Task: structure prediction
Amino acid sequence: MSQRIELYSTELISISVPKTPLNCQLDGGHLVVEPHRNITDRVDCTEQEAIELMAASMLAAKAMYSVLGVEKVNYQEMGNWSLDTVQGAKLHIHIFGRHEQQRYQQRGASIRFLPANHLIYSQVYQSFNPTQISALSSAMLSIVKREPLSLLFSR
Result:
């Protein structure tokens, strides 16, 4: 995948499939939630950004449970790989699905990461296919209409 694919967006946040997954879709996949504004840490969020970041992480997880049948979802807020880049660190939350049967990860253990430029991310891990991407996006559009999420996003 040459670029990230946006699945859901509001004025403040977006949920996307990253261009390079840190967890293979065979193990449950990987989505990213991030604010549109360039924020380095959650302490810098406005009240509504904070609410929508939490709501978006819930929305992404609910879609993964519904569409992919994942057993568990892990949430990780990182950003260390971009500390020394020109753009610097930007707040984002990784949403990792976990299937009962794991191919590259170990069930019951934290997600394992290799160095940022490791070839496993670009040459081994598979991203979501077009059918999964469409289903995740459709599920999000449906799920967000129901409480409690319908109450959390500004319109």
About this structure: Residues 114 and 120 are 8 Å apart (CA to CA).
